[in-house]
Sequence to fold (44 residues):
Amino acid sequence: MSEPDRPDSPEISVCKGGPGKSVFMESGNSDGWISSDVTIDVTR
Fold:
């Protein structure tokens, strides 16, 4: 069984912003970013 079609989604990158901090950035949008002190791994 194949996965259903999904709408176009932005490509998201994550970088380490410092000890214990992650920064999420949208590809092509250097003005928009989210920083987080707490993140979890998502598994499928």
